[in-house]
Each structure stands twice: as C-alpha cells, then as structure tokens.
Design goal:
Elements: E1 2-9, E2 16-21, E3 24-30, H1 31-36, E4 44-45, H2 47-69, H3 77-86, H4 91-103, H5 109-120, H6 126-135, H7 140-148, H8 152-170, H9 177-190, H10 195-212
Antiparallel strand pairs: 1-2, 1-4, 2-3
Helix pairs in contact: 2-4, 3-4, 5-7, 6-7, 8-9, 8-10, 9-10
C-alpha cells in the first residue's frame, strides 16, 4: 500500500493529473479516473493495482487522441509523437498508440513522402522537399528512394516556369543582366532547386529572352 501525497493538474492537458505516492511522482492518470476511484490526498491505495488500471486507461486515451490528431490531415510518425508528448502522455502509451496507427496504416512515412513530394513539386525543388521531410521525421532512406523516382525533366520544367515568372517581375525594375541572373539564382535556390538545375534553368530563361528580343 502507498499514500497519495499529491494530485497535480497537468499544465498542458487539464484532463490529466500527475499522481505522487509517498512524496514521489508515480505516474499520470486522467482526472476522470481520479473521480471514479475516489482518489484523494492522504488516501491509502494499492499502487500496483492502480498502476495497471492507469496504464490501460492511459493507452486508450492516448490512442483516441492520436486518432483525432490524424483525423483532418495525414501526418508522419514524428508529428504524431510530438503532439502526444505535448499532451503529456507517457512513452509507453505513445509507443503502443503508434503501433496501433501503423498496424492499420493510419500513419505510413513512405506513403506520406509520396503524397508530400507529389503535392510540393509544383512549388518546391527536390532539395527543399528533402529538408522539409527530414524535419518532419521521415528517414533519409525513404526520402532518397522517393526522390530517385522523380522525373528530372519535369522538375526542370517547373523550375523554368517559376524562374520565368520571377524574371518578368525583375526586368521591370532591373536591366543589368548580371544582377538579374543573380536574383534568379537566389530565388530558385530558396525554392530548393540544386545548383545544376538552377544554373541550367537560368541560362534557358536568359536565352529565351534574348531570342525574343
């Protein structure tokens, strides 16, 4: 048996509390469970029995929270983990919730990478896409595998369209060819295109303008 010495409301999740037994932090449980079990400071409890009950209840609530997180938008494993940690669920419950989501294919970093790359190719170069996916927690191997299947010519065509639009804006204020190409270079690099694609596209844009002239 152990004595409850403190019941502390969590700062980030007002529906959960931290339970202290015999002066030390024991585990977190829902405020609802505190009510159901009539837990109060100075109460004597069977700590092992309560821990088993708390772990089961924590997992169920963590799983429900995880399902709500992915309800509106597809997310990576890391994004789901980070949000569950912000809600102060314990790592055991989080790991079990992630296993559940993976088992039913609610989260799948390979599928996420495919969808993300397909959607962002219209506005981003492969380098920026790679960096963004890494920040989202997708492993480098998955990203590289998906990027290898990219149509390089398609990426160059998109980069050309982006550069052409930017060029038309720049030349209204700038006539120096060197400065124009420099601004185009920085613009495409900021979009995540590598140096080879950027250089090739700029040459093409500048050449087309000369031909039109």
């Amino acid at each position: 048996m152990a004595k409850i010495t403190k019941i502390e409301l969590q700062k980030r999740n007002k529906e959960r509390v931290n339970l202290f037994l015999d002066g030390e932090y024991a585990f977190s449980i829902s405020a609802e469970l505190v009510y159901k079990e009539s837990l109060k400071v100075n109460s004597e409890i069977d700590s092992e029995k309560l821990k088993i009950l708390a772990e089961s209840e924590n997992f169920m609530r963590c799983k429900e929270s995880a399902l709500r997180i992915i309800e509106r938008t597809y997310k990576t494993e890391k994004e789901v983990r980070d949000k569950l940690r912000l809600k102060e669920y314990d790592e055991i419950s989080i790991n079990k919730a992630i296993e559940f989501l993976e088992e039913y294919n609610f989260i799948n970093d390979s599928n996420y990478a495919k969808i993300f790359i397909r959607d962002k190719l219209r506005t981003m170069g492969s380098q920026k896409i790679k960096y963004t996916l890494l920040r989202k927690g997708v492993c480098k191997e998955i990203i590289n595998e998906e990027l290898l299947s990219l149509d390089t010519d398609n990426e160059k065509n998109i980069a050309f369209d982006i550069a052409q639009k930017k060029y038309n804006l720049i030349k209204k204020k700038e006539t120096d060819t060197y400065k124009i190409s420099g601004k185009l270079y920085r613009h495409l690099m900021s979009k995540g295109y590598n140096t080879d694609v950027t250089s090739e596209v700029i040459k093409k844009v500048m050449a087309v303008d000369v031909e039109d002239f």
